[in-house]
Amino acid sequence: MPGDAVSTIVDPRFSPEAKERLRELFGLDLPLYRQFLIYVRRMLTFDLGISFLSQRPVWEELKSRIPNTVALLGSALLLSSALGTWLGVKAARRRGGLTEKLVLVSGSVSFSFPSFFVQLVLLLLFAYTFPVFPLRGSVSIPLPESAFARALDYLWHLLLPAGSLVILGFGSWAIYVRNLMVKTLGEDFILLARAKGLPEGRILWNHAFRSALPPVLTIFLLALPGIVSGAVITETVFSLHGVGKYLLDSIMGHDYPAAGAAFYILGLLTIVSNLAADAAYALADPRIRVGRRIQR
Prior knowledge:
Helix content: over 70%
Largest sheet: none
Order of helices and strands: HHHHHHHHHHHHH
């Protein structure tokens, strides 16, 4: 973030002395190593500081935005992975057929377009030309009175942003799962299951998909940090009250404490996701647990 944070929050007519007092107040006059040590201490204690722009505690501002981002990314990831997995399995089962060709073509097209382009087109079509969904925001103003009406209103605002991420994300899942299943369906234990006369559906889901599940589960967990970048664009396009838009606004406004806290939360999410992926892989694949016991 090049530039001076103080210059973005004060009137240009302020005297140099007033600007210098603000620099002292925010600790920007300290040497860089001192500022870094203060930053590390605050991150370890979750004392994320005060926002330069709003003059409010950063953690208080993040707490009001985290649920919206979690709802957006969580619903989009679950729906896109479920849809992509189902299509990938169907494509692997019908190799060379129309289903596989449609999955490969639609999957390749879905993640070939820039996310902001797809989202702007959806916003233009379904929020402006045909006003089926709201044009912006996470909730309506004023809020509905009953809790049930507020929940429906929130889902109404969430549907188009989450749907755009599903459209952009299901294709990579479908192609990835299709490739895994094609390889798994050629294994010897699948031939043995068919020789025993087991139903094709049981072979497909209970044997082949279960064998391909560990890498799918790993990719699912490792995708959590990656889709946060999609949250920045999506929340900005749809004007959602989330962490992604907060991060972009903090960077644009040279709000160092807010931007640093947002990056810190994203870093923690990456570390936790990697640990969860390793644990989930061991739970899904008994061979990992047996191998660790043998090494001991």
